[in-house]
Amino acid sequence: MAxxxxxxxxxxxxxxxxxxxxxxxxxxxxxxxxxxxxxxPPPPTATSTPTAxxxxxxxxxATSTPTxxxxxxxxxxxxxxPTPTxxxxSTSTQxxxxxxxxxxxxxVTPTxxxxSTSTQxxxxxxxxxxxxxxTQTATPTLTPTVTVTPIPVPTNLDVPPGNVKFLEGHASGxxxxxxxxxxxxxxxxxxxxxSGFAWAFFGPQATLYDDHNEEIITxxxxxxxxxxxxxxxxxxxxxxxxxxTWQDSADTSSVWAKQMATSSVSTDAxxxxxxxxxxxxxxxxxxxxxxxxxxxxxxYTSGGVAPSAGCAQASDVGSKQLVAYxxxxxxxxxxxxxxxxxxxxxxxxDLRVSVPxxxxxxxxxxxxxxxxxxxxxxxxxxxxxxxxxxxxxxLLVVNQNANLPDVNGAVLRYDGATGAFLNAVVPATDPTALxxxxxxxxxxxxTLFVTDLGLIPPDNAPGRLLEYMKDGTFxxxxxxxxTDFPRDQFFPRGLVIGPxxxxxxxxxxxxxxxxxGGDILRFDPETGHFVDRFITSTGxxxxxxxxxxxxxxxxxxxxxxxxxxxxxxxxxxxxxxILIFQGPGGTHPGAYVGRIDLDQAGQDREFAEALLxxxxxxxxxxxxxxxxxxxxxxxxxxxxxxxxxxxxxxxxQGGPLGAPWYLTFGKTDPATLAYGE
Length: 677
Fold this sequence. Notes:
By secondary structure, the protein is mainly beta. The chain folds into two domains: about 35-45 and about 150-335, no CATH class; about 340-665, 7 Propeller (Methylamine Dehydrogenase, Chain H). Helices cover about 0% and strands about 45% of the residues. The strands form nine sheets. It has an eight-stranded antiparallel β-barrel with strand order 7-8-9-10-11-12-13-14. The radius of gyration is 35 Å and the shape is elongated. The chain starts with 18 loop residues before the first strand and ends in a 12-residue tail after the last strand.
């Protein structure tokens, strides 16, 4: 029987952004998002002037202007015209004495000024005879002299203690200016010249190189859609704040930073700066070269100063000048890595454009991306679903092998500390043949329960509930018999161990016939026997919200004891939502309590496949589709107010998740899915 992938609810990609400066009739400067690169507002006037004089030379092959004085004496005895009875001897002696002074451009590290002079004297004597015998003697003498003068960094640009430098790059590019009426949104009235017009800074465009002249980072202006909490002083950025941006050229990880201090070293160069990182994001495949950055220094600048002319009258408005500059950027990170908890999310990404699957990791408190914990293609990962940490340490991942029709699913094991692939607990070749495995829990620290969605028409293979030992040994098929539940209506998805110790399974009852309706079924994990239908629904979009339980997937019990279930819309007049029901300890177990709407009817869909409670009793909800402005986001809900903040930004705003599904924290219980504070 051929396996066909059951598509998730619908998926979109948005174009990347760049910025265009537009002068409006009101004299305001608008920066609009259109496609690629551009630093933020200009640094303030410096308040300190160091005594150091700076000369910076990028590392390049040395060039030299030689001066050579040579005196040569040559004595030559030409050979006589030979005759058959005459022997000829010829001796040629040449002596050259040369003195050469060469002053090359030295290789200069950015923390010093260096002058290097070398004097070389070479004396050579060459003697030859017609017989072909030659003798040459050369005696070179090299006397180098190097003077190094360190250039101190002004103390107001010192990076706070507890941070260490991990990367540096030599920048070459432009500081970009536009002529505008003054004052404006960039230039304050106090800085305006008498003409009423001034050059306004609207960003850098630069490339950073390493010591081998290899490109490592691009530098531009862009909106910060990934704000992170920062230490005092100051507060986190509002999402979308324009900030100076640095993006790794290899893995596309990015950071955004704001100016903290400035120092003018030369009137011919832009100031030196200390910047604090206020935003960070991984690349699409989980690259995180830059995401741990805390501070950035801009030092040893040359050029980049705003033009002194060309912006003095109305006809100059809109003129742009891209002024060449060079600088060195130093990147710092915390000396002691964070030991806090992390959130792990299986990211299928959009396989239709061949972006590989990963398991990505985020700081559990701040949402700061920590990179790909399970790298692309590790262990053959393609379509991760259920995630749990075994109490012994390893991470277990349900791998659906999505979009591979002839390959069954599997359960994979990864090192819990490094994310390295260890082995397939239940391989794709296992006789139990997991067709489309979905969710998983580890009960009693030894037993795995895995849901297998089965195959929808035309293949018509009903789903199964399978039990394994955690080493992969098959125990039993726990699918209810036809007398307990209709076999042809069993298509299990999510599952969780409830407060009463029973196994709760979300079932899309009519998946084979209609997308409406669903059930929450209960099983005894000790015996594997079916217990009852805890919640049942015929589905639809009526005002009776119990009847809106359509194709339920993820489910989890909250700290309040209620059961939260991801449910999909019935049709285009309905919306995707999270439904809330009383748990087994309530006065009316299974009764409808309320709902959290994920989107609105008639608008872009923002549905969820899974959900999980985390730190502070917040409900974490990945938006699984790739259509809509919130595609790929992770929302963090306050279930009391039913409001949320964006924990991980959506893909259209540069977020790293393509199609997030199931998730787990390091402190999530592998059976109850409760968070251990």
